Amino acid sequence: MRVTTQMAVDTLVSNLDRSFERITRYQNNLSSGTRLNNLSDDPAAAQRSLALRTELRNFEQFRKNIDDGAGWLQLSEATLNEMESLFVEAGGLAVQGASDTYNTQQRQAIADQIDQFLEHTLNLSEARYRGRYIFGGTQTADPPYEAVRDESGTITELRTRADTSGSIEREVSDGIVLQINIPGKELFEGEDSAFRVLIELREALRADDTRQVQSSLGALSRVREQISASRGLVGARVNRMEITRNLIDRVSAEMTAVLSADEDTDLADTILNLRQEQDVFQAALSSGGSVVPQSLMDFIG
Amino acid sequence: MAITSAANQGLEIGRRALQAQQAALNLTSNNVANANTQGYSRRRANMESVDGGPGGRVGNGVDVTLIERMRSRFLDAQARTENQVRGRWEELEHILGGLESIFNETVGAGSSEAGTVFNEPSGAGLSGSLNRFWNAWQDLANVPESGAARAAVRQEAEFMANTLHQSHQRLQESRVQLDNEVVGEVEVINGILDRLAGINAQIPRASFGRGGLADLEDQRDNLLDELSQKVDVALVEQDNGQVSVLMSGHNLVAGASAVHLVTRQVTSGGLSGTQVAFADDGSVAQIRSGRLSGLIEARDQLIPDLSRRLDEVAVGMVEQVNIIHRAGTGLTGSTGVNFFDPTQTTAANISVDEAIRADLNNIAASQDGNTGDNGVALAISGLRNKRFMAGGASTVEGFYGTLLGEVGSRSKEAQTMAGNHRLFSTQIENRRLSVQGVSLNDEAAQLVLFQRAYQAAARTVSVIDDLMETTINM
Questions:
Q1: CA of A269 vs chain B CAs: smallest distance (Å)
Q2: Residue A145: is its pLDDT beyond 50?
Q3: Angstrom distances, CA of residue B96 to CA of A261, B90, B412
Q4: CB B275 within 8 A of CB B292
Q5: What is the 3-state secondary structure (H, E, C) of B41-93?
Q6: Chain A neighbors of B409, CB-CB under 8 A
Q7: Alpha carbon B185 to chain centroid distance?
């Protein structure tokens, strides 16, 4: 093929352009640290990276949800612990009160102690996590129970302010929700509720009715079992949250690695390519510089 | 008598030789002068020996009979076909590159930056803001009684709406820009058509004289090259040397007259745009290739399609969030409140409902009416996993991800195609230059050749002069 001056120059220029474009791209990848500077750089990887990023952000949110839920559960656990030991103690006192070896005065003293337990149980029922009443079901703004007191200030009855059966949930991973609250209804309301059993025991002691005291022992242990069951439930949920959290941590570490493989510049590879391309560019420049200006014109006089 | 006549003939031959070599030297000089002129076709002097007349054994010297313009019609046609395809892809490459930047977001933020991206919830794009919108609802679900969490939900909702507005806005701006470019291109095309008609008008006259034609033809070929990048045209060369230009069978240039393209504003399907039509009969010009077709394709298909899909995102979000939100209860007992304004369902105008803007307490998190319940907040945040887009085929983030993937791969396709066609174009251009381009080596050799011939011819003249002098002094 006949090669003209302009062809030689055009070819040189377009080769230099292409080579320089590649150099710029490598440089860009190196300086930005990523090989995905535009969607079109690798559409499939960009799409994948976007989905992974979303997933990772969700994980971050789940961690927050778990932390918050675990805090709530831990407070429930502590409260239930205290209630349990309180009822163990109340059981001991009831055994004493049912015994014939105790006199009326002593029973009154035990009754006073039980009254203190009742007050304390009321306090425990008003446990709050970050300002929210944890036993009020979804009614978290107000104390769930209202004490009715006689003239002397003794609690005669506890009334529910609202429905305390609502369940509160946290999303701990995609689509998986865990209930984090023990509804007050299960512990504080009904036949064998903590309040009622304590009030009955107190009244039996006050009335010096040992038979009645005796019969309340059964109710006391049923309450204790109920508390213990709730505590077990809370413990299981805390466990589940921890397992989920560990899983999330592990998966997000893996995802970050995948993301890095998709997005990050392979330094060794890119630097090597850049070096090669620079050599090509240099060679093109120097050969172009020495060949293009020459023609027959230089040799005829 | 015979001697002087022979001498005169010799002088005449010498004169013609000098003239011819001079002409060839001028041509060489012209070639060298235009070595770098774009679209210049190198010229060569065709010399023929002049017939010696009846009985004349000796010839009558030389004459430049034709100045040949080195050009390959075949390669020209190939180059122009390639130009049309390349023009379209280059235009699309350019436009898609711009569109891509609208959608570029956290993609490629580099996982090294991931920590900052996740902790301080940046992620300026739509995908990031959708994600943060859902997560704001989760935060509210953690503290459904909170005013601060409600403020965050509203803020993220407004941010997401704004992101949609901006994407929409930038798409519309690009569309208007493209429309203006269509008008601009048509003006340039009309200018080229006029000049082609003007050249046609000169061609029959110019062909009587020599030399001028080559320049006109070069000009015309340049114009046709330029035109072929913009629209798909067919060329017909007439017997008298004029060239007719046709577009989808419609005459654009016939003889010395040009039919202009006109632009007119039309609105179809809610989209206004400039339509290109023929000036003579007003019929719509179908542009299938070239830069102009790329512009029109992007304006009428690409951008409206992207816009429509952003609108779908807006509609989906407004409807789905509202359905759940209406069933919930706000902090102060409000029910049946829309979260997004149900009358504003496009990417251009999606906005948080007036009631929510007026009072954060109207944001409903509760299902059962109690302030501690987070049922609605969880349900709304759960929408991120619900396939309510594309006829129930994908989640909203999936839908948007697909859209981004498509923008990316179309842009990549355009880049690859434009790159390929640039390469083809360069190859064809090289072959054209191989025929028509000026080679300084060639010209240098020619220069020596004609210079020597000129010197020799001059020498013959002086020898004949000597001869005549000798004869006269006999």
A1: 17
A2: yes
A3: 26, 10, 9
A4: no
A5: CCEEEEEEECCCCCCCCCCCCEEEEEEEECCCHHHHHHHHHHHHHHHHHHHHH
A6: 40, 43-44
A7: 10
Q: Are B278 and B250 in contact (CB under 8 A)?
A: yes
Q: Any residues with CB less than 8 A from the CB of B117 and at least 6 apart, and which?
A: A53, B106, B109, B123
pLDDT (average), residues B439-458 = 91
SS3 content of chain B, % helix, strand, coil (to 5): 65, 10, 25
Task: Report whether CATH 3.40.190.290 matches the domain A52-256.
Answer: no
Measured CA to CA, the distance from residue B303 to residue B389 in angstroms comes to 20
Contact B167, B350 (CB under 8 A): no
Which chain A residues are Cβ-neighbours of B121 within 8 angstroms? Answer: 57
Helix (H, G, I), strand (E, B) or coil at B126: helix
pLDDT digits (tens, 9 = 90+) for B229-266: 999 999 998 888 889 999 988 999 998 999 999 999 88
Instruction: Kindly state the percentage of chain A with pLDDT values over 90.
Output: 56
Let me know: does B339 contact B325? Beta carbons within 8 Å: yes
CA distance A160 to B396: 44
Instruction: Identify whether the C-beta of residue A132 lies closer than 8 Å to the C-beta of residue B372.
Output: yes
Q: Write the CA distances from B212 to A6, B201, B240, B447, integer angstroms.
A: 24, 14, 15, 23
Rounded Cα distance, B194 and A104, in Å: 124
How many CB atoms neighbour CB A12 within 10 A? 17
Give the H or E element holding residue B271.
strand B271-278
Ordered alpha helix ranges (H), B111-211: 114-119, 126-142, 147-206
Query: If contacts are CB pairs under 8 Å, which of residues 198-237 in chain B contact chain A?
Result: none
Identify the burial level of B98 via C-beta atoms within 10 angstroms of its C-beta, where 0-12 means exposed, 13-18 middle and 19 or more buried.
middle
Q: Does residue B228 carry a pLDDT above 90?
A: yes
CB-nearest partner of B408 from A43, A171, A259: A43
Task: List CB contacts (< 8 A) between B370 and chain A.
Answer: 137-140, 162-163, 166
**Which chain A residues are Cβ-neighbours of B372 within 8 angstroms?**
132-133, 136-141, 166, 168
Please tell me if residue B142 touches chain A, with a CB cutoff of 8 Å.
Answer: yes
Q: Does A43 contact B445 at a Cβ distance shorter than 8 Å?
A: no
Gap between the terminal Cα atoms of chain A: 28
Question: Is A33:A291 a contact under the CB 8 Å cutoff?
Answer: no
A37 close to B (CB below 8 A):
yes
Comparing CA positions, the residue from B317, B373, B384, B386 lying closest to residue B141 is B373
Tokens 């009072």 belong to residue: B359
Cβ–Cβ < 8 Å for B299, B265: no
Say whether B135 and A33 touch across the interface (CB within 8 A): no
Q: Does A85 touch chain B (CB under 8 A)?
A: no
Burial class (CB in 10 A: 0-12, 13-18, 19+), A170: buried
- Nearest CA to A9 out of B403, B440, B296, B466 is that of B440
Q: Do A40 and B441 touch (CB under 8 A)?
A: no
Q: Nearest-CA distance from A67 to chain B in Å?
A: 10
Beta-carbon separation of B106 and A53 below 8 A: yes
Chain B residues touching residue A47 (CB < 8 angstroms): 401-402, 404-405, 408
pLDDT computed for residue B55 by the predictor: 66
Residue of B nearest to A40 (CA): B408
Cα B58 to Cα A141, B15, B61, B456, B463, distances in angstroms: 126, 16, 9, 18, 17
- The phi and psi torsions of B343 (rounded to 5 degrees) equal -90, -10
Question: Å from A92 to nearest chain B CA?
Answer: 37
Per-residue pLDDT reduced to its tens digit, B57-84: 778 889 888 888 899 989 999 999 999 9
All residues of chain B having their beta carbon less than 8 Å from the beta carbon of residue A260 are: 111-112
